[in-house]
Amino acid sequence: MIIAVYWFLEDKTDVRSSNYLEEAATEIQVQGLEVDYACVLWDADMRYDNGKWSFWKFNGKTQWIPEKNLETQKYMLNAYRVLLTRARQGMVICVPEGNARMTQEGFPEDPTRQPSFYNSTYEYFRALGLNEL
Question: Is 41 helix (H, G, I), strand (E, B) or coil?
């Protein structure tokens, strides 16, 4: 017996339903699911730079470090593939601008969200013909 979860069957009276943007889902949670519209938030873990994808992992504190493990890179690539193939009618890919603000001492306000982490990926999507909203 297959039991559909609330986001698939509930109507507009349930804020957890697909009629709202109240709940986020990971690539694991959406695998095998089709939705009418999807919003994918692109992070700095996979960046398009110099004509290829580069893979990064967050050290859990203050910085992104290169991901060298090829199996992990394949997993990351597949995770984004899953997220990019869920929508039937439309999709928004959100690439953050990053945070370029500096502290009074001259250090990045948030060194984990530098605009340079996102700019080349954003430009790649624009070069593919994606429209900016």
Answer: strand
What is the tens place of the pLDDT at every residue in 7-48? 566 777 776 666 665 666 666 776 677 778 888 889 999 999
Output the pTM of the full model.
0.75
Going 24 to 29 to 33 to 39, the CA torsion angle's sign is: positive
pLDDT in tens, 117-133: 999 999 999 999 999 98
- Give domain limits for the chain: 30-127
88: tokens are 């039937």
- In angstroms, the first-to-last Cα distance of the chain is 42
9: exposed, middle or buried (Cβ count in 10 Å: 0-12, 13-18, 19+) = exposed
- Candidates 95, 92, 91; CA nearest to 46 is 95
Of the candidates 125, 127, 132, the residue with the CA atom closest to the CA atom of residue 84: 125
Write down how long the chain is.
Answer: 133
Task: Give the Cβ contact number of residue 80 at 10 Å.
Answer: 17
What the block records as the tokens of 108 is 């990045």
